[in-house]
Amino acid sequence: MPFGCGQQDPDISAPTGVGSLTVTSIPDSASIQLDGECTGFFTPATLNDVSTGYHTVRVTKTGYSVTPESLRVEIREGQTTDAEFTLSELQARPVILESFTNVCCMPCAEANPMMYELMDQLGPERAVLLEFHTQFPSPLDPFYLEQKTLMDTRIGQYGVSQAPWVVIEGAEGLQPSSEDALRQVIDAADIGNDVELRLIGEATSSTVTCTLEVESAISDGTYIIHVFVTDSLVEFDEPPGTNGETEFRHVVRGALPSPDGEDVQLSTGATETFVWSTELSWWSGEDDIRLTAIARRSGSLELVGAGLYDLP
Predict the structure, then answer these.
(1) Is residue 116 part of a domain?
(2) Is residue 9, in this structure, part of any structural domain at all?
(3) pTM of the full predicted structure?
């Protein structure tokens, strides 16, 4: 896990002298951290009087991923050591996919693993999957029965009548027939970012609580906000349905503050803060949980904002 500002690298050589460290990045203007401490310098820069021995260097820049994530460098007395990083611009937020499936849907047994693999390839910076379970072809789907009101609300929202079905950004619905076709739709998705959603959360043995800041960056208006709680992995010893699936990922197991979401009236530049909690009767304390916040304008289904927070 990356060290934040103020955290010390636990493996720093004792100083015996000093040298210099030149840190560069493409593009430049990235903040430089040395052994977990913010240096106050931005790339390109040379740090003088760095103690000899081994040090960990990191750079950060809002809106960019960094390669490599960190470098371990050796500073030698009276010499200059180089540390070079490459930054890649991130899209403003990930594309949100809402998948509708059922444990007795035979085509779903092929579509779901394909979508799971694609999410692994793209990563949560690029795309996020929310898996909802339907009452068709079988009303005995255990995930559907666990959250009937939530699942029915989302199914009705989009008028879904078949599985598998996936909705991209609240706008385009299609059958997930192949990885290439789905990837093309993700690449072409129009990502609305009118609303900034800043999300943090914490979980206990029985409850998850999220704090959500909502800010309108474009215009005044009424927005509908949802926070979905997803389980990273659910495994069964025996298939719970007739299609043979025993492994389910990105499964929606709850919604905050309710299945209908929250109506929020926002003025441009203004921020509203919400704190919501829900019970986790299904959580063992071992599986990873993701909170995914999405926003849409009142009267529209197209998403205009999203935010993520992973637990624990």
Answers:
(1) yes
(2) no
(3) 0.73
